Amino acid sequence: MRVGPETRSWREGECLIFDDTVEHEAWNRARNTRVDLLFDFLRPGISIDMQDEPPAEVRDFVSKRR
Fold this sequence. Notes:
Blueprint lengths: L1 E2 L2 E2 L16 E2 L30 H10 L1
Antiparallel strand pairs: 1-2, 1-3
């Protein structure tokens, strides 16, 4: 998995936590199917009312892709 400039590998029995508002990609080069369980965390400093609002950088990126 790559998040921003950093690449990490998943290890059995461990988990990876990352900020999905940063450009990221994941791939599975194993022969077996991998199933991911996703959790959303409230970002520090963000009120509950704003938790579903992406950062301005993400909104700008998405709007340029349309």
